[in-house]
Write a structure and sequence with these properties.
alpha/beta, seven-stranded parallel β-sheet, two-stranded antiparallel sheet, 15 helices, 15 strands, binds nicotinamide-adenine-dinucleotide, binds thymidine-5'-diphosphate
């Protein structure tokens, strides 16, 4: 029975990974370490926390004492490091927090894992590790920078981060690589494209657009909406991470992508059309609309591109296009993105329509202040 340390397990992808692993490998013991920032929510994993195989620890990945205690108490075999400050717009406002969490936090985890897993030294002085252990760093395609209209990121594309967020993730990748080279630590790095799915915090494009439509608010599209992202359903990402952890070649980087490039403006239009269609097919979904007066519920005519979309000031240093070439993980591990975007987006929108209590809970704190600062009173 393997014991995983899953950091950031109360966030979007981390929580989906927790659910995935508990289903796929029911004999696993999971230790979740999360300091519950605005993006982490215990409600997201409340059902998982009742599982006796799950231990939750509220703490900071940058705190040496907290992480050391975890390794002393639990026989950790795998570290899967999701914990991070993850939103580009916030990194533009407050870069330093991103460096502290994403770089120093990763280094603290690496260092503690190295000490705990070392059983001796070889004749050259390199540590020898307990068998079967691995550190997996969950990284992002954003470390490769921005593409023009053509081409793809492969694992050998040079790192060229352009936002404080991506720079902090690239630095974290480099410190992971440094531990692999200098201390022969068993690691993998995965670099994934944009995820979407349940439990996505509504500061990111897809859940923010869904939330705004339900509140009959304008939908802010940065610049002219022509920026391209490569969207992957979150469960497919979790499956890829699980596969790299268990079967990936130690020391390797694996790109994970959806083969699903879309312009932002097209994503927004697809969400508008899909919400309207789902409400027409199933009028029960109209109860997710916020101003629940009768006229709004009866009449969905206002759910149109023209009425809802507003083009706003572009993000500073906005990367134009991301697109992943996932050939390596497909060839080596047989992984491919199973969920077609047309199905994944409907599943995602249905989930939000059916889980408005989750949305309300996670946005009840500082979210309103953040929204006003970012978007004004639209
Ligand atoms: P998220 O913001 O939803 O969740 C991050 C989680 O980390 C939260 O639960 C938060 O409380 C926790 N956390 C933050 N700082 C912490 C700290 N110092 N100590 C302990 N916990 C801390 O992020 P996400 O979208 O789930 O992303 C998870 C990881 O995947 C990140 O490393 C991100 O860079 C990477 N990634 C995300 C995407 C995406 O599309 N969301 C794509 C590729 C890679
Ligand atoms: P986001 O979900 O923040 O992910 P990332 O910046 O990590 O790719 O943004 C996805 C794309 O959507 C990105 O090109 C910025 C754009 N965007 C908007 O146009 N409006 C918004 O309100 C947000 C949050 C993002």
């Amino acid at each position: 029975m393997n014991t995983y340390l899953v950091t950031g397990g109360a966030g979007f992808i981390g929580s989906n990974f927790v659910k995935y692993v508990l289903k796929k490998h029911p004999n696993t013991h999971l230790v979740i370490l999360d300091n519950l920032t605005y993006a982490g929510n215990l409600g997201t994993i409340k059902d998982d926390l009742t599982n006796p195989k799950v231990t939750f620890i509220k703490g900071n990945i940058s705190n040496p004492r907290v992480v050391k205690e975890i390794f002393e108490k639990h026989p950790i075999d795998f570290v899967v490091n999701f914990a991070a400050e993850s939103h580009v717009d916030r990194s533009i406002e407050n870069p330093q927090l991103f460096l502290k969490t994403n770089i120093l936090g990763t280094q603290n985890l690496l260092d503690t894992a190295k000490k705990s897993w070392t059983t001796g030294k070889d004749e050259s002085g390199y540590p020898i590790y307990r068998k079967g252990v691995k550190f997996l760093q969950v990284s992002t395609d954003e470390v490769y920078g921005s593409l023009g209209e053509t081409g793809y990121f492969t694992e050998t594309t040079p790192l060229d981060p352009r936002s404080p967020y991506s720079a902090s993730k690239a630095a974290a990748d480099m410190i992971v690589t440094a531990y692999a080279e200098t201390y022969k630590m068993p690691v993998n790095i995965t670099r994934c494209s944009n995820n979407y799915g349940p439990y996505h915090f509504p500061e990111k494009l897809i859940p923010l657009i869904i939330k705004n439509i339900l509140e009959k608010k304008k939908l802010p599209v940065y610049g002219d909406g022509s920026n391209v992202r490569d969207w992957l359903y979150v469960e497919d990402h979790c499956k890829a991470i699980d596969s790299v952890l268990l079967h990936g070649r130690t020391g390797e980087v694996y790109n994970i992508g959806g083969h699903n490039e879309k312009k932002n403006i097209d994503i927004v239009k697809i969400i508008i059309t899909t919400i309207k269609r789902l409400m027409e097919e199933n009028p029960g979904y109209k109860s997710a609309l916020k101003e629940n007066n009768d006229s709004q519920q009866d009449n969905l005519e206002w759910i149109t591109d023209d009425y809802l979309i507003t083009f706003v000031k572009d993000r500073l240093g906005h990367d134009h296009r991301y697109a992943i070439d996932p050939t390596k993980i497909t060839n080596e591990l047989g992984w491919y993105p199973e969920t077609k975007f047309e199905d994944g987006i409907v599943k995602t929108i249905r989930w939000y329509l059916e889980n408005q209590d989750w949305v309300e809970k996670v946005t009840s704190g500082n979210y309103r202040k953040y929204y006003r600062q970012m978007y004004g009173n639209r």
